[in-house]
Amino acid sequence: MNYKEQLRQFWQNEKNRTILKDAFLFGASTLVFHFLYWNTNMNQWLFGPFTTEVFDFFTDITYRCSRFLMLHFSDSQFDSLDTSFLFYRLNDLGVKEYYAQMDVIHDCSGIKQLMQFLLVMLLCPNKLYKRLLYFVCGSIVLIMANIYRIYYLTDLFSREPENFQYVHDWVTRPLMYVVLFALWVIWIEFFARPKAVRTPDKR
């Protein structure tokens, strides 16, 4: 069987066409979202005059939860200032010597991933109320993943600041998109379309 025949048979399979369509919508929505996010005032579209308050709210949640994790699972010593970590060591006289500051800013809030997830779910198949319900549940997963991301980066910054930027850009940031992609795959695989009901064979 030649390549063209294999391709024709692949395309004639309805399941394969559906998979390609879903994957195309996910990829296209991701590209469109990032173009709009970086080239327009998308935040103002969604939140209007409450944009700053919304970002402050999610940033504060991220900071408080990551601070809780730092207090219980990290040996680094720090003081808190607004949404910043001020890391210090005690010198021989027991005086604090500050050596690094980690700021949790609006870009750390995870709202970007939440907005992208919302767009993806709006384009997915099934009834709107089911997609919105899944969006709420998936958003909790994304928020928790982001909190752990900021906690991990904060702990890393306190111990190995020279590795922070690389891990931030090439490890933890892509992992957030892995979580988003996994949520989409779960929806497509288990919830997007009603499962065919198997009827018993007639004897």
What would you note in describing this structure?
The structure is a single chain. With 203 residues, the protein is mostly helical. The protein has one domain. It is built from seven helices and three strands, in the order ααααβββααα. It has a three-stranded antiparallel sheet with strand order 1-2-3, with helices on one face. Helix 6 runs antiparallel to helix 7. The chain is elongated and about 80 Å long. It starts with a helix and ends in a 12-residue tail after the last helix. The model has no long low-confidence stretch (mean pLDDT 90).
Question: What labels describe this entry?
Answer:
203 residues; mainly alpha; three-stranded antiparallel β-sheet; 3 strands; 9% strand; elongated
Stretches where pLDDT falls below 50 for ≥5 residues?
Answer: none
Shape: elongated
- Number of individual domains: 1
Residue fraction in strands: 5-15%
Strand tally is 3
Structural class: mainly alpha
Radius of gyration (Å) = 23 Å
Give, in spatial order, the strands making up the sheet with the most strands.
1-2-3
Largest sheet: 3 strands, antiparallel
N-to-C terminal Cα separation, in Å? 37 Å
Number of helical regions: 7
Q: What's the average pLDDT?
A: 90
Encode the helix/strand succession as letters: HHHHEEEHHH
Please bin the fraction of helical residues.
55-70%
Question: What is the compact description of this entry?
Answer:
It is built from 7 helices and 3 strands.
